[in-house]
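Entry 14: structure prediction run for TROVE domain-containing protein. Input pasted below.
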Amino acid sequence: MELSGSCYWEISDKTRLCRFLCYGSEGDIYTAREEGRVSLESAGALLSMLQEGRGAEVVEEIKRFSQDGQAVRLGPSFFALALCSQHSDLKTRQAAFKVLKEVCLDPAHLFSFIQIKKELKEGMKCGIWGRALRKAVSDWYNEQDAMSLAAAVTKCKQREGWSHQDLLRLCHAKPANEAIALICKYVTKGWKEVQDSYSDKHNSEEVVKVLSYLEIVEKAKHSCDETEVINLIEEYKLEREQLLTEHLKSKQVWRALFKEMPLQSLLRFLGKLTANKILEPGCSETQAVCDRIQCETALKKAKIHPLSLLLSSENYKRGQGYQGKTKWEPDSSILKAIDYAFYKSFMNVEPMGKRFVVAVDVSTSLSSIVPGSSVSTAVAAAAITMVREYYVGNCPYSEGALVSCSLSADMTLAQVTAELVKLPGGSTDCTLPITWATENEKAVDVFIILTNNPLWAFAASPLEALKNHRQKAGAHSKLVMCGLTSTGHAIADTEDRGLLSICGFDMGALSVIRNLAQDLI
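Run finished. Output tokens:
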């Protein structure tokens, strides 16, 4: 089949489903930081595939997107699974319940799934707690490792209006073994009842381990002794969610938490910790945090992407939370540590083996801010051009032509940003990078165009230029139009699955680009 042929690039129901599972919309627009709840109106392809008897195929896609880290947001996967679990076709329902534990990996996911099922059933006379759901939820608890389940139920006790107590009561759970029975009793009856039931019994080794762990959690919950709480955190790796609010006012408690806290979580709390004077200039806690952020082993383990660190740095530098209530004075040593980690984290960028051209439209000022972040569009554009794997080229363009720009792999973020903003402004023509690649016989898999212009303001449509490049280069070329300041408009109404628009920019945008490049959406 010809690469430029319309059949190859037409958007199928499966493509629309995959887009929905990836970012919650079947359309060709990804809007950064948009967290709205999905609905039946936005799931036409999903419903169509279910009506065609393709339920098993839908469930496989749900499982793939939720497991492989391909989904930007997990809400659409939970919604799709809930819809499959109450479809009229028995095999579809069975397939959905069979993968519940693989899709809903933690209690928060399970609570979301149950709530969506409840909302889908609203207005109907029948309830959601049929035999199949009761068994699936019971299996979710019974098939967990006992120690993992004990940690899960003490870290995430309730969400979305549901608690473990609710689910265990409604599913009529029959514990698979004594250790799970102990956890179920703890959740439904409380610690005192567990003590009374197990104190005089001859318990198995696994039950003793779970019993000891729950005792530690209870001890931490009721302790007013800072030293005792710190010792419990360090010895038993207790986490922030298992402590009281009072405990989290202590510098020493936070220092103990820093040692094992996931690096991404630590970066998220930097502003709050600085505002609450947990982190102060020159103090040992601040040094401990800086050491953790700069640790190459920790960066590798967390697989943190450079752009994630950039967003963390700019948000911390802002000195204020998005709600405006929490304010802090950014600590220079923390900013230096994040800057160091930014360059080190390029080792975490996984090559896709694709040929990219990143084109930056400098026809308008790059001094504005990416919506929903503290990052200037110039810095965002510079950082994206620095994430190199197999680039055919970086192409700044303006005034109807590509412009000369000296970028090299050893330049710092500040140097790349300065190089971009010094270029002259002018009129916009987003076909230029594609035409350049075609005329210079450079086969490109993905064109990424970064611009400050609204995505609907372009005079020239790039679709014809893209089709021409596909034909002449013999490549499965795709185009991502990224409007760094746009809020929800597409470049063109097209039925070509190789075109995608991104409005704004966040870490999810990178996942969307990766999925498009790898033919997953």
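Notes: The first strand starts at residue 29 and ends at 31. Will compare against the previous run tomorrow.
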